[in-house]
Amino acid sequence: MRDTVIRALVVLTIGGGAILAAPAGAETAVGKFTVAGQIEQTFLETGGPAVWGVPLDDARDTADGQFQRFQHGVFYTEPNINGGKAYAVNGPILAKWGELGWERGALGYPTSNVYQLSTGGFAVPLIGYFGDTPGRWSKFEHGVIYWTEGTGAHPVSGTIYDIWSKSGYESGSYGYPIGDQYPVADGRVAQQFQRGTITA
């Protein structure tokens, strides 16, 4: 069964196997496996084997798409999302997404690659200026996951995401999420951020 396949990121050293250049849309041989279709296109556009290493296996089917594991990330594609474009997920964001149930979880499929971001620092009245807090984020069908080394990886979705986005995302008054959503009274949910809690 596909769901029994462990898709956690595993860094392996795989020797041998020449990397053959091929136009997008054809199959590209990378090590012992091939990369094809939308996964191949995104793989080559985002740096190819120099960034992602070699594939750990051939592409596998999901319920309605495909995924392929590489040494340094996993690529997912779903035909009904952005024309079937493939997106890469890696590192702590990949681990958190897996914890939440992969594409069958609450967030659904990825709809962006993992992006680097930078807040540029922030000022707190009467306390002082705090330096830059670089992080990463990735967008999914039903929310986002944000990560920094200090805060860890946490999803933001639903009404809390709407409030947080209007405040300026991680560069706004709340900063990065420091925990996941949790239930509170009256059927509402809350989530803690670096500089406050949002309840919705």
Tell me what the structure shows.
The chain is of the alpha+beta class and 200 residues long. Helix content is 16%, strand content 29%. It has a four-stranded antiparallel sheet with strand order 3-4-5-6. It has a four-stranded antiparallel sheet with strand order 7-10-11-12. A hairpin with a 3-residue loop joins strand 11 and strand 12. The protein is elongated.
Helix count equals: 4
Taken from the alpha-carbon principal axes, the silhouette is elongated
Main pleated sheet: 4 strands, antiparallel
Query: How far is the first residue's CA from the last residue's CA?
Result: 38 Å
Give the amount of beta strand, in percent: 25-35%
Structural class: alpha+beta
Short description:
The protein has 200 residues and is of the alpha+beta class. The chain contains four helices and 15 strands.
Give descriptors for this structure.
single chain; alpha+beta; 4-stranded antiparallel β-sheet; 16% helix
Give a topology summary:
Layout: E1 28-30, E2 33-35, H1 37-45, H2 49-52, E3 60-61, E4 66-70, E5 73-77, E6 87-89, H3 91-99, E7 115-117, E8 122-124, E9 128-130, E10 135-140, E11 143-148, E12 152-156, H4 158-166, E13 182-183, E14 189-193, E15 196-199
Antiparallel strand pairs: 1-2, 3-4, 4-5, 5-6, 7-10, 8-9, 10-11, 11-12, 13-14, 14-15
